[in-house]
Design brief:
alpha/beta, Rossmann fold, Helicase, Ruva Protein, domain 3, 9 helices, 7 strands, 48% helix, elongated
Length: 226
């Protein structure tokens, strides 16, 4: 009987990310991918992509940045020069608006500028604007009126695909049934996927064992206790 590990098959489409890491498309992130792909034919001058940490917001933002020529600016760093950057480039990526906006008035003026002069702004956030505490009423109203595209928690297919890729990146040979076992046991978040692969890698190196279901069970139990 051939005991060699079977080939792991990625059953999700890969998005070419223009030189960055591959991006797996699943039902959980497809609306956000469709938004990026539909530019410059947006029906609105700006949009918000919201999702949990590690969901792929920055990745998709950078894909859009390359396509649109936009400059990326953290919301916490917005200033008067941001207005000139939008005017000159025609597009702006404003990242992490939930982590603090340096100047509410600047962001409000940016949104007005985009609307009036047919510029494009993509904003990213871990939480929807409607759940944020924004001091300037006009900005609060404007953000809540923008199209909101939410990246949902990763589904099981996406969890499996990312597990396979991360194991391959670390040159770990893991059989499909082990990947499935892990995917069913971990929290559905990219942070949890990265954490469990790192722990399994360390344990496999320390014990000089392959990543088997038994080893995965031990590491998962330890992670649950932590």
């Amino acid at each position: 009987m051939n005991s060699a590990p079977r080939q792991l098959v990625l059953d999700l489409p890969l998005r070419s990310a223009l030189g960055m890491e591959d991006f797996f498309v699943s039902q959980s992130n497809r609306p956000a991918v469709d938004l990026i792909d539909s530019w410059p034919n947006w029906q609105h001058w700006a949009a918000v992509v919201a999702g949990p940490e590690g969901a792929g917001k920055s990745h998709l933002g950078h894909v859009w940045q390359v396509a649109s020529g936009a400059e990326a600016i953290p919301a916490a760093a917005l200033d008067e020069t941001s207005l000139r950057r939008l005017e000159s480039r025609g597009a702006l990526l404003v990242e992490d608006i939930d982590r603090g906006i340096a100047d509410d008035r600047i962001l409000f003026h940016l949104l007005n500028l985009a609307r009036e002069h047919k510029r494009s702004i993509l904003l990213t956030s871990r939480t929807p604007p409607g759940e944020m505490n924004i001091a300037l009423p006009d900005l609060r109203s404007r953000l809540r009126a923008l199209p909101l595209i939410t990246i949902a928690a990763p589904d099981e297919a996406l969890i499996r695909a990312v597990l396979i890729k991360l194991f391959a990146d670390r040159q770990l040979v893991v059989e499909p049934h082990v990947v499935n076992f892990i995917a069913l046991r971990i929290e559905r978040s990219m942070a949890a996927v990265n954490a469990i692969v790192e722990r399994l890698d360390r344990e496999a190196l320390a014990t000089r064992r392959r990543v088997t279901r038994a080893l995965a069970a031990v590491v998962l139990d330890a992670a649950d206790e932590d």
